[in-house]
Amino acid sequence: MSTREYMAAKLREFRKASGMSVIEVGKAVGKSDKTISAWEVGRGQPDADMLVHLCQLYSVDISDFYHEPNETLILTQDEERLITAYRALDDVQQSTVLGMVEGLVSGGES
Fold first, then answer.
1. What's the rounded Cα separation, in Å, for the pair 68 and 73?
2. Alpha carbon distance 90, 13 (integer Å)
3. How far apart are CA 87 and CA 96, in angstroms?
4. Span 48-57, mean pLDDT?
5. Which of 2, 21, 29, 40 has its CA 20 to 30 A from that of 73?
6. φ and ψ at 49, to 5 degrees?
7. What domains are there in the chain, each with its CATH number?
8. pLDDT per residue over 58-108, tens digit each?
9. DSSP annotation of 32
10. CB 12 within 8 A of CB 40
């Protein structure tokens, strides 16, 4: 899930948890209900000042709108070695390696 999608989902979640409609939120922050709806489906985002206003309205912290997608990802030493080696390759070599790996994963020939 992208940061934009995550923020959209959180905007919707916090609004619903507050018991407010998109019209009520729009009136509270000086935006149209269409703008609020657009934010909640990921078609645009509130600017920084508006995000602070929404935090106050929903009684949440600004960090609640962001996530760390890899916060629980722990790499093994072999995985770290593979990543380091891959990053040292040029574009053509990286493409070749990806093709080989995808072939192995799908069970086909590379």
1. 10
2. 43
3. 13
4. 94
5. 40
6. -65, -40
7. 3-65 (1.10.260.40), 77-106 (no CATH)
8. 999 888 887 755 555 667 888 888 888 888 989 899 899 988 988 888 885
9. -
10. yes
**CA–CA separation, 90 and 88 (whole Å):** 7
Q: What are the residues whose beta carbons fall under 8 Å from the beta carbon of 4, sequence distance 6 or more? A: 42, 45
Contact present, 17 and 61 (Cβ < 8 Å)? no
- Note the residue count of the chain: 110
User: In angstroms, how far apart are the furthest CA atoms of the chain?
Assistant: 60
What's the pTM value of the predicted model, to 2 decimals? 0.59
Ranges of H-type helices in the chain: 3-18, 22-29, 33-40, 48-58, 77-87, 91-106
